[in-house]
Amino acid sequence: MSDMAEPLAGRGGDLGSVTGEAVLADVASGVARAEARVIKPKPFKPRQLLGALGTHAVLVLTSIVCVFPVLWVVSTSFKPERDTFSTSIQLIPAHPTLDNYIHVFGDDNHLFFTWLQNSLIVAISTMIIGVAISLTGAYAISRFDFLGKRGLLLSFLITQMFPAALLLVPLYRIFLELGLLDQAPALIVAYATSSLPFSVYMLKNFFDAVPKELDQAGLVDGLGNFGVFWRIIAPLTLPGIAVVAFFNFMNGWNEYFFANAFLQSNTSLTLPIGLHTYVFQFGANWGKLTAGSVLVTIPVFILFVYAQRFLITGLTGGSVKG
Amino acid sequence: MATLAGDVRAGRQKPNWLRTLRKSYFPYLCVLPIVVSSAALVYYPLLVGIYYSFTNAVQTNFGVPALNIPPTFHLNGLHNFQDIFFGNDPTVDRRLLFVQTGEWIVLNAIFHFLIGIGLALLLNRKIRFRGLYRALLIVPWATPQFVAAYGWKYLYNRQYGFFNLLLGSFHLPQVDWVGDPNIALPAVIAVNIWLGIPFMTITLLGGLQSIPTELYEGAQIDGAGPFQRFWNITLPLLRPVAVLITTLDVIWTFNTFALIYIVSGGGPFHRSDTIVTYAYEVAIQNQEYGLGAAYGMVILVILLVFTLVYSSLLRANEGVY
After folding, report:
1. Which are the contacts of A256, defined by CB distance < 8 A and separation ≥ 6?
2. CA pair distance B90, B69, nearest whole angstrom
3. I want to staple B33 with a disulfide (CB 3.0 to 4.6 A). Which of A87, A124, A133, A170 is the partner?
């Protein structure tokens, strides 16, 4: 089972990309083969031309469907408020303006910046704690045999499917008792823990791909267990660590369910919940909502591009391959 | 996930635990943070949740720790579960919620897979602009889910939404996308289909590209047509991938909350709620904590049963290759 499933589970994460040696090799060879196929010249056939036209038609249509809602949000964010309530279709704003952005930044005593600060605190803390905890755990699981390892892995297997709805009420109660409701730390620990199974599993795959002979060489040269990890394993698996960090950051930045349940006062909201007030609390303000949405999405888009570059390094650099 | 199962089984083959225990305390130190945090924030809450699901806990008897008001709720047997499956609530048809959840999962899974495999097959051909198409298809994935949901909420707006403006420009009757009890659920399903296409397409494309070309060349020499090649090579070799990602897709789709909550609010009359969004409404908006916890248990049991069935499917696959 594991042989067939391993590469896919790697792609199955929210990043949808690559974990572990098997996948790296797998995808790399797939890509190489696909490129080799492209180069091969082919004689011209009218039936193939029709097929190619059909293919492009379908792909163009799908691309439009995929991109359009996002473009519409971007376009709306540059429209003056009266045009967001217009009854004619404006793909490109007829009267482009930055008013919505100015309102988002300035309204309610710069509340947006408070939300931004909350979101950054939550996402960055989640990232640091999530990576720190899962690094050591994944290293131990990858490198050592110890009592309870099997039970630990089994428990991860099960908790991976725990729906957030199951833990909602108990966590609500626990945070209420600890006085942590409406506070960032509650979200941070909840997020860091909920992404642990994914983080540990992903890092373990990357660690497994580093040959154990390197550890032994390090030990012979006088590095301790920690030295081996810090000087040999960690540098070699940097792409994997970056992917896990990215995943944890995204989780903290985007999470909606717990944040919506635990946060109450206006000044403690994170961005996803804060934006909600633009459309529900005081009647819909689509201009502000879309402008805020664009601002929230930009850093995630940049990180996505950045993380993808790391993944490609992992593919082509060969440092991770055993 | 599957690898974990593999490792778990591999671990069983090394029963020399007494020696490994003595060998070193270092690994235990390494896993301590995971164990402690999981215990505090997953396993303890799980046990508390099981307990709550058999109580009549609501906001008024839940106590207020800050004011030293103790909780006064008590065990009430299977009452919550009886409510979930057989209860008669005038505001919501609780049995219909299960049907809606089924529609939500099945329709999403089917369309995700069919569209995903179709696009993956197209993108696997030697065509121009492949990189561009691939990049554009990823956009719904790179967008935060709640942003996409806000965007679609605006597209669906009855008066100013793009879809109704488009219908209006063709002088067609307008549709109350998320306000009509019969249309709201299909409308939110459409959003989730849109959201899930990139993941399916990219993973299936990866699966397609890892199938050795020699197999196709050999089949072509043996006189197999395109359909035969697809049926006898592509599909069987893609099956493990397909089973796994469909399972992940089902679990994620089942647990979806923000999208439904933002786009339709589960309404009108709970007709676009799933049991997950309804559990949230019960627990947080109505503050019926016991009933909310019971819904959590029901959701967990459904996921466990589904995963057991899935893993036995996967095991049945194992022998084939």
Report:
1. A272, A273, B145, B146, B257, B258, B261
2. 33
3. A133
Q: What is the pTM of this model?
A: 0.81
**Alpha-carbon B239 to chain mean position:** 20
How far is B182 from chain A, CA to nearest CA, in Å?
23
DSSP tally for chain A: helices H, then strands E: 16, 0
Question: Is the CB of A5 less than 8 angstroms away from the CB of B203?
Answer: no
* Residues of B with Cβ-Cβ distance to A72 under 8 angstroms: 151, 154-155, 162
Q: Give me the pLDDT at residue A115, please.
A: 94
User: Is ipTM over 0.95?
Assistant: no
Q: What is the CA radius of gyration of chain A?
A: 24
The parts of chain A modelled with pLDDT lower than 50 are 1-32, 34-36, 312-322
Name the token pair of B129. 């602009």
3-state class percentages of chain A: helix first, strand second, coil last, to nearest 5 = 75, 0, 25
Dist. CA A150–CA B42, nearest whole Å:
18
Q: How far apart are the first and last CA of chain B?
A: 20
Contacting residues for A262 by C-beta, under 8 A, at least 6 apart:
A171, A172, A175, A181, A182, A186, A187, A190
Tell me whether residues B65 and A132 touch, CB distance under 8 A.
no
- Exposed/middle/buried for B267, CB within 10 Å: 0-12, 13-18, 19+? middle
Q: Does B22 touch chain A (CB under 8 A)?
A: no
CB-CB contact of B181 with B187 (8 Å):
no
Span B212-238, average pLDDT: 87
Task: Answer whether A101's CB lies under 8 Å from A170's CB.
Answer: no
